[in-house]
Amino acid sequence: MTNRFAVVLTFVFSLGLATTSGCATGGSVGDRANRAAADVLLPPRQEEDLGSNFSEQIASEVSFHPSESVQSYVNELGALAVESARSRGDVPSGINFEFRVIDNDETINAFAGPGGQIYVYTGLLKRAGSAAEVLSVLCHEVAHVTERHIAERLVAIYGLEALKRAALGDNPGMLGNLVTSAAAQGFMLKYSRSHETEADETGLTYMLGTGYDPRGFIQFFELIQQQSGPRPPQFLSSHPFPEDRIANIRKRLEGRGNLSDTSGAERHKQILQSL
Predict the structure, then answer these.
(1) CB-hemisphere CA count at 13 Å for 253?
(2) Cβ neighbours of 257 (radius 10 Å)
C-alpha cells in the first residue's frame, strides 16, 4: 500500500465512511470524503492520462459527426464554458478540455469523460432550441469535471491500482467497460443526486459568465421533462427530476437583475441545417 493511499484511507475511515458508497445525499460527508480521496489518489494530471486512453477507445466505438461547422460550433460554446470556469479559478492544473460531437440522433444527452473529454450527441443538438440550451449542458458537464465528480466516482468504483493501470494503458478491461457504458447509454458513470445538483448549480454560475441567457438551463430541462416517461419515486432515481431542477434554477435566478437575453437561436438554426 502506498503512503498516500494509506493517508487517505486513514482520513476517510476516521469519519466512519467507505469510499465505495455509490449514493450520497446533498453535500454529504461521504461526497467530501470521496473528493479528498480523488484529489490524492487520482490527481488531475493522472486523470488526463486516463482520459487520453479513454478518448482513443471512444473513437473506436462511436462515429463522430463529419461536419466541421457543427464541431466548431460546439467547440466555441465549450470554450465559453471553460473560460468562465477558468476565470473563477476552478479549472485544475493538468485538465485540458476537448469537445466532440457523436453522430447519434436518438440520444438526447452529453457526458464527460476523465480529464475534460466532453461528448455531445447530435440528438441533443437537434432537439435543443438555441445555443443557450446547448451551452447550459456544456456548463453542466464542465462542472462535473471541475468539481472532480468523475475522479470521485472512478476512485470509489475501481480503486487506485485499476486506475493507475488504466492511465498507463495496461487495463483495457476497465476502459472497455467505461466506453461501453458511455457509448451505449450516454453517460460514463452514474453520479449521485448531490453530484447532479452541484453540477447544475456550479454550471449555472459558469453560464452567468458566458454572456448567454442563463434561462437556457430551464429551457433545456423543460425539454427533458417533455421527453420523460413514467418514472420511479425520486428517492429511487439517481437524477433529480427535471421539474425539481427547474425549480432550483429558477430560485437561484430570483432577484438577479440584468440577465442576458442572448439565446443564439438564429445561429443554432443555421447549425441545424448542417445536421
Answers:
(1) 20
(2) 4
Q: Give the helix/strand (H/E) hosting 100.
A: strand 98-102
For the whole model, what pTM was predicted?
0.80
Nearest to 22 by CA among 234, 144, 189, 175: 189
pLDDT higher at 158 or 66: 66
26: pLDDT strictly greater than 70: no
Task: Give yes or no for a contact between 143 and 202, defined as CB atoms under 8 angstroms apart.
Answer: yes
Q: What is the CA radius of gyration of the chain?
A: 18
Identify the CA nearest to 182 among candidates 62, 63, 95. Answer: 62
At 196, phi and psi to the nearest 5? Answer: -65, -40
C-alpha–C-alpha distance, residues 70 and 117, integer Å: 17
Let me know: does 76 contact 135? Beta carbons within 8 Å: no
Cell numbers of 24, please?
450520497
